[in-house]
TrEMBL record, chains A, B, C, D:
InterPro entries named in the record: Uricase (IPR002042)
SUPFAM superfamilies per UniProt: Tetrahydrobiopterin biosynthesis enzymes-like
Pfam families registered for this protein in UniProt: Uricase
UniProt keyword list: Oxidoreductase, Purine metabolism
Protein name in the entry: Uricase
EC number: 1.7.3.3
Leading EC class: oxidoreductase
Family affiliation: Belongs to the uricase family.
Gene for this chain: pucL_2
Function: Catalyzes the oxidation of uric acid to 5-hydroxyisourate, which is further processed to form (S)-allantoin.
Amino acid sequence: MAIVLGPNQYGKAENRVVRTQRDTPRHEIRDINVSSALRGDFSAAHLEGDQSAVLPTDTQKNTAYAYAKEQGLTSIEDYGLALARHYVDDVEPVQGARIEIEEFAWERVSIDGVEHDHTWVRRGQEVRLAAVTVEGTADAQQTWVTGGLKDLVILKSTGSEFHGFLTDPYTTLVPTTDRVMATSLVATWHYSSLDVDWEAAYAGVKNVLVRTFAEVHSLALQQTLFQMGKRVLEAYGFIAEVRLSAPNKHHFLYDLGRFGLENANEVFHADDRPYGLIQASVLRDDAPAAGPAWDAYTGLV
Amino acid sequence: MAIVLGPNQYGKAENRVVRTQRDTPRHEIRDINVSSALRGDFSAAHLEGDQSAVLPTDTQKNTAYAYAKEQGLTSIEDYGLALARHYVDDVEPVQGARIEIEEFAWERVSIDGVEHDHTWVRRGQEVRLAAVTVEGTADAQQTWVTGGLKDLVILKSTGSEFHGFLTDPYTTLVPTTDRVMATSLVATWHYSSLDVDWEAAYAGVKNVLVRTFAEVHSLALQQTLFQMGKRVLEAYGFIAEVRLSAPNKHHFLYDLGRFGLENANEVFHADDRPYGLIQASVLRDDAPAAGPAWDAYTGLV
Amino acid sequence: MAIVLGPNQYGKAENRVVRTQRDTPRHEIRDINVSSALRGDFSAAHLEGDQSAVLPTDTQKNTAYAYAKEQGLTSIEDYGLALARHYVDDVEPVQGARIEIEEFAWERVSIDGVEHDHTWVRRGQEVRLAAVTVEGTADAQQTWVTGGLKDLVILKSTGSEFHGFLTDPYTTLVPTTDRVMATSLVATWHYSSLDVDWEAAYAGVKNVLVRTFAEVHSLALQQTLFQMGKRVLEAYGFIAEVRLSAPNKHHFLYDLGRFGLENANEVFHADDRPYGLIQASVLRDDAPAAGPAWDAYTGLV
Amino acid sequence: MAIVLGPNQYGKAENRVVRTQRDTPRHEIRDINVSSALRGDFSAAHLEGDQSAVLPTDTQKNTAYAYAKEQGLTSIEDYGLALARHYVDDVEPVQGARIEIEEFAWERVSIDGVEHDHTWVRRGQEVRLAAVTVEGTADAQQTWVTGGLKDLVILKSTGSEFHGFLTDPYTTLVPTTDRVMATSLVATWHYSSLDVDWEAAYAGVKNVLVRTFAEVHSLALQQTLFQMGKRVLEAYGFIAEVRLSAPNKHHFLYDLGRFGLENANEVFHADDRPYGLIQASVLRDDAPAAGPAWDAYTGLV
């Protein structure tokens, strides 16, 4: 029996790159948190402390900022592809690279209906996600791209039921035909093509997710999530799979009867913990294997 | 020499009250985090453990939820006034009450341009604040109301200079005539009247703050903040004082010259810590004394 | 082509269970955050909103608290095993269960060298982790247990070098033979046996990890991590694999030469982001397959 | 009526200074988060954007690191005093300076009972606090120093009652003669002398606070807090006032009777929000005026 090195990766996490474009008086801005991880044979570093195959994480930091200039930053998927391919193609010991990106959206300030050229307010709503994985070189090169979002907090004040569930001796929940349903959605999706208008795809997927949450009369959060994933796949042929993780942000009806007050689903306590947590994948039955598409580095995607 | 009890207060912090209105198919929602603190002679509780003058914090929790039904929750200032007056007027040992509220805004989901009746997405931008303090009863009763906001992240990519500053042997900063200026603004303001349309006032003040940040060509964050406060006071005669606390969220130009790349204010590192922190009050020279308007309980306001 | 439901699980996350033992005047306390996830054929809930196979997450909450009484809570691994087996053995539709636990340690208050019977201070150092996965019933039942820790912040002020690394056009890092090395360690390990003294094993593994970090003269964080994992495996035959995730918490030497001051590795800026992030597995070459041991539900392990 | 500038201050917040001493093989380490604020007539900066009186916050950052070398960092109070006096004495426009410090404690790693020379684990328990305010120069100079701690989580599993409280129509709380009492203590104290052994004083005050929490049979958190403050004042003649802020971290008895289980104060749900929050000052009746001792800049103290 011997003790051996197993799977490993290393990189620079959470580079906070802000990129403006100022070729004209009307500036543009992109604001991201990017992490890069390199995979390959780094056993000498682990076993002997020999760094000769190790490109420093400091270099990866420099590269993240330099590529925001050299390659531009007009969509996080393209930027991530450029970075991942660079490491695999240009740095000899690197056999695979994983780039994970969070993007924070800004909205242009409007003054009397006119958009300001160079001032923005952070939108603050959901965080956009992307992850790019590239493995191998030349003809053997394979690429996986996922998009996503997190922290999209969405709520409906009716149109949600929960009853008919399995019971056991520990079950005390009262069935309901009308409840508040709310979640802080995490959704990621695997693109089966690289020939995608990333900006339009992101906006479109978000729109389908939100719209479906609103439109589906819900018998369970599970049912709503499946419909959300299904409708994304129906709308976008270049998406192979959608993964959803949805905490059930409980809104408990507050017992006001003790004070002689009726509470017809009007006053709730929004509780923190514990919370229900539903996770599901929705995919095409002919979807290509996900491979390392969802093998996370920092937990972003 | 004796050891004595000094100023004290107690209450229930961070009640997460969500209130819907569902009288018609088009529902409404308000989502708040409310804290109540009571002030008065509670020395028996401290000195002898005698609770006979102490209304439990659990009761304050119940009251926060009950008042969302009884009094409604159509503006946080009115709701806060109702709660504060209740404690001072109805609970004998209470001589003063402080209500602090954070409000989280939701925006209605739109489907094909039509607003949905009962589904919303958390806006996620700034958090609205209010604090109400009531002291004394009947003719001796005094009331202070402050409004505010926090977490409003705003940035301009040009139109900001910083030079001509004082130097000493520890000064290494390079003057600049063009930099990114960004902050996560906290602003609070003291209403000198209670006869205010709170919703309109909040929207208006936020608009003035954002607009002024955009419009003022900045020679220093201090200068921008003073103008922001000044224009709020000019626009709203019923506001006596504005207090601003603004972290300078540094965006450092990344040195790309090392890689043969020009960086003409295009690529920045958004740093976390440390950060400059500027705080200032702007007020009318005939402003009434602020009294306990800003004597915080939970640090919300 | 059809759209189908892929892998899914659901449960109640972050139940904050505190269990005291008070059979004698000297009380004991265990303080945990426990999440349970159920796996099985829940397609009816997703596809049709039919809950008849779904044990509510509310029931899982009740069960977490009830089992702290019924089964006791003397080690998180045994408690997790009892919960996981209960779901798989007693709830018919459940084919697999995953229990993830964080434990917060308390230390007894000492007064004049005498330990107090019923007062503790939260230790506050690392958080202990465990995850139990059970699949199948009767003879086909399989069980995986991992232990772990997170948030163990450890630093050495010398005995760490970093040089001889690969360079490319983006490399600007200066090699060093003496630097501060610090991390906030996450380590998890897979037990190949269930016949383990869990409390002793945890204390022992933590001790080996800390001791090895101190004793190894480091040429790279990678090398230190491999040694940490290797020595755990050498010391504990019932551990098959160790996984380590270590952010390099950078301590940058502050340039005091600008002020005529020498800085011989004495004054550092502890930076927040970005950070190097090294991840590695160390295992026996005859280790059993990890199976779902590390298939996380909440990201705890 | 004119609009004028009110009270203002500015500085550099949250400088993360780490200072090692390595004169001998046995190193020492101090790890702090320090903020400095300057007060004076900075109206030209606010009103006209004229920075000629403004020492940049970047300079304050440099100074914080430089002083960790020049003045050393053997106690945060002495380091804070040196910084504050420097700004007031050496920088002409500065009339007052406020230095706020958080300190994170490290404990030396022990290997087989022998302390390691240069490896530590972050203790992780409470955060130590200090704030220094200096106003005026030469004979007119006044100085205030407060010490403190935060995040000290302490719990007793019995020895706490709560009954006999005031009731009103919203009161539903059940009185109890035996409950868990827990808090995450914030305590700050005002030193009436500068001739203090700061390290011994801090350790002593913490010890009195913890011991008193344990020893007092509690009829209310208020009563416990008053005793904690009183005993600190009795023990340390050079402390004039103690301020305590204590969230009541509720541990709710879980209703296990529904499952046929007895719960004799053994199984609790540790709730997050809302929480009771008790704040009180305990002082000598001849205490000097606190002046600006507690006028916070960053909310640290």
